[in-house]
Amino acid sequence: LSELTAEGLRAFVAEQLDRSRSRTVQLTDAVDTDDLVRQHSKLMSPLVWDYAHIGNQEELWLVRDVGGREPVRQDIDELYDAFMHARADRPSLPLLGPTETRAYVVEVRDKVLDVLDHVKFDGGRELVDNAFAFGMIVQHEQQHDETMLATHQLRTGVPVLDSPAPPAGRRLARPEVLVPGGVFEMGTSVEPWALDNERPAHAVRVAPYVIDTAPVSNGDYLKFVTAGGYADPKWWSDAGWAQVQKASLDAPRFWEQVDGEWLRTRFGHRELLPLDEPVMHVCFYEAEAYAAWAGKRLPTEEEWEFAARFDPATGRTRRFPWGDDNPGPRHANLGQRHLRPAPVGAYPAGASPLGVEQLIGDVWEWTSSDFTPYPGFRAFPYDEYSLVFFGSDYKVLRGGSFGTDEVVARGTFRNWDYPIRRQIFAGFRCARDPRPGELG
Ligand code: AVJ
Ligand code: FE
Fold first, then answer.
1. pLDDT band at 2 (very low <50, low <70, confident <90, very high)
2. Which atom of ligand 1 lies at the shortest distance from residue 389's CA?
């Protein structure tokens, strides 16, 4: 990005804005008016809320702030402020209807393209440096596209989304690898569109550990289910066991057993549980319990990023497991290209130097870490993106899912959610301490 001319940067931004918008339009045009305004789960907003909220954030940051233009619809700011109304309450608000919403986001986008034509990237405003505010808004829309995809997964009725199958899997040579540990540079101070919580880069020492070369598969997880894992408190933390009872957990969300066969429902399609696909729709507590049952634990966020970015040959921290190139279709399952995780082993070209695979894409990976700020953190450009969420309420997830766009799924990107949440496209991989003698 920093190597582009102003004209090159303008063209790049326009293309990214357009890519996000086509995804938003696909996800919202796929359903009828009733499905757009309805709440498919108390955990989610009506799709039409996400749609207008995308436009409203774009208006606030790019039309009004960056562009210094007159408001388009100041009267609706409050309706689409995520902090004013809980998701459960959003259907009862006087929201814009589907037709009004579509007209609104188009009007905002037209103004944004005009702002983009005139903006000076080198005007000395931090918000505009490297087109940051545009990148933030592109990522905001893509993140809501993933949220809307999760709403689609919760929707019942005839299937409306389809996609080509992901590449085939393969057997990995080893189920886990020893990571030697060392000091690495975590986070970033140079990725132009990295969000505030990924900054700044800072040195972190990681002790040697062992990590799975792939996410835990449905087949692996099924063994925990059939071994009675959900009935034995010894695998669960106190909070996890309380959640098992409160929510009557007995298998991942969207799994069911019919006549002795395990099925799962994916965007309205009911199918046999694919055993070689990474498990998903498990909460943090389920991930933690499986790991304990397997004699392992979840990786810390530091261990996850070390595995994803450290190159033992050079001692350098890279952007991605495969190097510094942006993710392409051969590296990772991203961008809603395939509406499911790919089977284990489907992305050999995405492997890290130590042979850890599918770190980026497929499923978000729960880590054992709380969402806390890096040393030297500075909220930018607004406290409500990250700052207000720091603390012990949220667990960090890494790597992105099949529903995450590549403009979001950086090696440094940090996602977070409550440890009870299962509607997101989240799975996990295990880690453990090396056994005596293993260090050689
Ligand atoms: C980073 C995915 C937790 O969806 O709540 C969207 C992203 N922030 N609008 C979320 C976000 C404001 C955020 N996550
Ligand atoms: Fe938002």
1. confident
2. 3
**432 neighbors 295 (Cβ within 8 angstroms):** yes
Distance from the alpha carbon of residue 42 to the mean position of ligand 1, in angstroms: 17
pLDDT recorded at residue 175: 98
Closest protein CA for atom 9 of ligand 1: 140
Three-state DSSP state, 152: helix
Note the pTM of the prediction, 2 decimals.
0.98
- Mean pLDDT confidence for 138-166: 97
Residue 294 CB contacts under 8 Å (≥ 6 apart), including other chains: 220, 224, 430
Q: What is the DSSP string of 86-99?
A: -GGGGGGS----HH
**Burial (0-12, 13-18, 19+ Cβ within 10 Å), 41:** middle
Alpha-carbon distances, residue 397 vs 22, 263, 414 (angstroms) = 26, 26, 6
Closest CA to 73 of 50, 47, 95, 48: 95
Q: Any residues with CB less than 8 A from the CB of 212 and at least 6 apart, and which?
A: 175, 176, 296, 356, 429, 430, 431
- 3-state SS of 27-55 is HHHCCCHHHHHCCCCCCCCCHHHHHHHHH
Distance of CA 200 from the midpoint of ligand 2 (Å): 23
- Asked whether 63 and 112 are in contact (CB, 8 A), the reply is yes
Which residue's CA is the closest to the ligand 1 atom numbered 10?
A: 143
Shortest-distance ligand to the CA of residue 397: 1
Distance 143 CA to ligand 1 centre (A): 6
Separation of 60 CA from ligand 2 center, angstroms? Answer: 12
**pLDDT score recorded for residue 64:** 98
Residues with CB under 6 A from ligand 1: 140, 143-144, 147, 385, 415-416
Tokens coding 224: 């925990």
Q: How far, in Å, CA of 418 to CA of 87, rounded?
A: 15
Q: Within a 10 A sphere around the Cβ of 95, how many other Cβ atoms?
A: 21
Assembly ipTM: 0.99
Which atom of ligand 1 is the closest one to the Cα of 415? 1
Looking at ligand 1, which residue's alpha carbon is closest to its atom 1?
A: 415
The single-letter code of the amino acid at 426 is A
Q: Which residues have CB under 8 Å from 120's CB, separation 6+?
A: 6, 128
- Judged against a pLDDT cut of 90, whether residue 1 lies above it is answered with no
The angle formed by the CA atoms of residues 209, 389 and 236, to the nearest 5 degrees, is 50
Q: Residue 259: exposed, middle, or buried by beta-carbon count in 10 A (0-12, 13-18, 19+)?
A: exposed
Q: How confident is the model at residue 211 (pLDDT cuts 50, 70, 90)?
A: very high
SS3 284: helix
